[in-house]
Amino acid sequence: MSFKAGFVGLVGNPNAGKSTLMNFLIDQKVSIVTAKPQTTRRRIHGIHSSATSQVIFIDAPGMIKADKGLNAFLEKEIQEVISESDVLVAVLSLDEQNAETIQNVIDKVKKSNKPWIAVITKTDLDLAHRIIIIRNGVEAAGGKCFQLSSIRKDKLSRQEILDAVSALLPDSAAPLYDAEIFTTENVKDLAAEIIREKCFTHLSQELPYQMAIQIRKFDESSKKIPHIYADVMVAKESHKPIVVGKGAEV
């Protein structure tokens, strides 16, 4: 049996569940997850290794159209992920309100001429009629469709998806990365993303989207717990009180 390895790009609309799907498939928390669209700002790699394959998932920002600012950068990231991937997964959310945006994702991955499958996410929602509509759209485009509720931790569906993408990968003489690692991210990058996730979660609607996190120092000398020093950066002076409270009271 030949060994297979390659890159699998997760492509979908904002808030489609790409980050949740990747974390679920590799069984590790690598990508941060919030209810806000465009939480993912850059591509994140998650690695699943087995005796017969190594799948390097790429979690990309949600699909958008823009020609300037942050959104233009995010669109460029998406295009590069599609171009550089060996296989694509169209991540299609059951709670998407506009059927046209679902079809746009399907058309995008088909137009790439890359091998692809589709995964319908959030199937725990009481919207079963939409599954049939989405599945018909995928199959009409020549794709194979899977459905998944990560909330219910469906291990059978997880393995079916892993098997399906592995079968589409190119042959490889060996794994592309050490089989013991599950991401190419370093510890500081992971810490920065988790801090940003908590800011998104706790600051709710008031959060400025231009926020970024920079890790300054890791102090592991403490016997109880490592100390992490990080800067929370915002784009405007007026955004500071939103994050730390007026006069840094919170």
In short:
The chain has seven helices and eight strands. The chain has helices at residues 18-26, 69-84, 99-111, 128-140, 155-168, 187-203, 240-244, and strands at 4-12, 44-49, 53-59, 87-93, 116-121, 144-147, 212-219, 227-233.
Shape: globular
Q: First CA to last CA: what distance? A: 59 Å
Tally the beta strands: 8
Tally of separate helices: 7
Order of strands in the sheet with most strands: 2-3-1-4-5-6
Average pLDDT for all residues: 82
Proportion of residues in β-strands: 15-25%
N-to-C SSE string, H for helix and E for strand: EHEEHEHEHEHHEEH
Q: Which structural category do the helix and sheet elements fall into?
A: alpha/beta
Largest sheet, strands/sense/barrel: 6 strands, mixed
| Helicity, as a percent range | 25-40%
Radius of gyration: 19 Å
Unreliable runs, pLDDT <50, ≥5 residues?
Answer: none
Layout: helices, strands, pairs:
Blueprint: E1 4-12, H1 18-26, E2 44-49, E3 53-59, H2 69-84, E4 87-93, H3 99-111, E5 116-121, H4 128-140, E6 144-147, H5 155-168, H6 187-203, E7 212-219, E8 227-233, H7 240-244
Parallel strand pairs: 1-3, 1-4, 4-5, 5-6
Antiparallel strand pairs: 2-3, 7-8
